[in-house]
Amino acid sequence: MADTLRRLINTSPFGVLQGKLESWHRDYRILSCDQNLNKCCELIELTTSIQGQLFAILNITAAEGGDFDGLDTLKTRLLPWLGSCFALSRPSVTSDTSLQLIQESVEKDRRIRELSASHDSQMQKMDIELCSTRMQLDSVKAALADVQEELSKTKNKSATNLLASEDEILQLKADLQSAHEQLEMYKRKANSLDDYEQRIRQLREEFSCLSRSRSPASLSRVGRSSSSRRSESPTRAQLTNSSRHARLVSRFNDLYAAERLEAQALLHRYINHLETVQRIIFIAVVESFSAAKLAYRQFKLRTWKRLSPNHCGPESLEDASVDYIVRNLDLYDVKASVNDVIGAMNMNPQISFPPGVDFFLIGDLITETCKVAFAMQTLEPPLDISFASDGELYNESKYRRSYDSQFTAAVVKYHVWPALVEGDVVLIKGEAVTKRAALWNRGRSRSISPVRSHSLSPTRSLAFSGKRSLSPERLRASYL
């Protein structure tokens, strides 16, 4: 009973009833009849609720009193009050009013049933939608798990490739370091050889001074003997042939290890296809050797014409010309050769280049290759690169396979770097890519490339056959 009484005190129903009575009293004049009746019914319902709670408390209190406690109070106060209430209320309720109340109750029950049925149908629909949403969520979770598994596999594969690339870079750095050490050793040898040559020249000058101080007869005799000996004495080019040979071979290795990789990285900014980049670099090296050999022949012809009127030395005109070229390598017009190389590459149907960019992008590689190739022509015998063509049989003595080759294939798809030869002897192996389908793709690789940039000549837009037309300089060189 104490709990019920406490809840009644906490809810303060009498305060609410008093507030509603005051509000109804203030608005009674301005409200309509229906509104006033609704206010009155609301107050009756609230009063009934309060009376129900009080009757519950009365019942609990009477039960706590036992069979006899509180009996007099119920007889003297509750029963007479109940009798007077029923006596007062009986005349106001008629049979019609009771029937109306029954009808309203039936109507309310029907509405309650309809709302309950509607609520049940809505709940079923929501259950169906919830099941469908759960199924979709499960499918999304499964797809997410597959994607995460694929992502983990890709990460593992990328990590493996990265480790392999790092190992290859470390190996290349080690090769480059050894090449630099060999270069320094050859430079020291060349410097010592230059000292020897200077000492020989000094001895020759002292010998010529001693010869001039003798008598005419002895002078003529000494002159004849010295001329015979001088004709057998080597020139500077012949004395430095071995050192220049070693230095140029080492420089060719540096071109492959340093300048080639720099040009490849530079081309990768504009061309994503590795095969196209490697083809461009290989053709640039081949054209550089061709242009340098042509420039050497022309330079040698001009040297012959310049030295022949005044030549009276013991060495032949050929040796004197080569010796002059060796001493004056800085007179080589390398810019003209670079222009010839880029012009030939623009005419080459095997390679293409993005619009807006030309082959001057790899001008450093072409320049250094032309210098090395020109200096190689002064050796005895001269050094050259081997002939190469797509679709040829792979030669183990001339090339080594690249890392992305098919090692069981016997046909070269394309070349990455040419082989350096001295006559028929291979000094440095080149690099080639071997594929089984290289013979079938050979005709496709010679398809006409589109116009690459604004720097291309108008003849580039013409149709090409399998052979490239020779430039005027190449036509003149073919008759030399």
TrEMBL record:
Instruction: List keywords of the entry alphabetically.
Output: Coiled coil, Cytoplasm, Lipid-binding, Membrane, Mitochondrion, Mitochondrion outer membrane
Bias class Low complexity marks the residues at: 217-228
Segment Disordered: which positions?
217-242
Q: Which compartment or compartments is the protein found in? A: Cytoplasm; Mitochondrion matrix; Mitochondrion outer membrane
Q: Which family does it belong to?
A: Belongs to the MIEAP family.
**Residue ranges of every copy of the Mitochondria-eating protein C-terminal domain listed in the record:** 244-434
Provide the species name.
Tetraodon nigroviridis
Gene Ontology MF, one: lipid binding
Name recorded for this polypeptide: Mitochondria-eating protein
Cellular component annotations (GO), alphabetically ordered: mitochondrial matrix; mitochondrial outer membrane
What highest taxon heads this organism's lineage? Eukaryota
Gene Ontology biological process terms from the UniProt entry: mitochondrial protein catabolic process; mitophagy by internal vacuole formation; response to steroid hormone
Reply yes or no: does the keyword NADP apply: no
Coiled-coil blocks:
137-213
Q: What is its main location?
A: cytoplasm
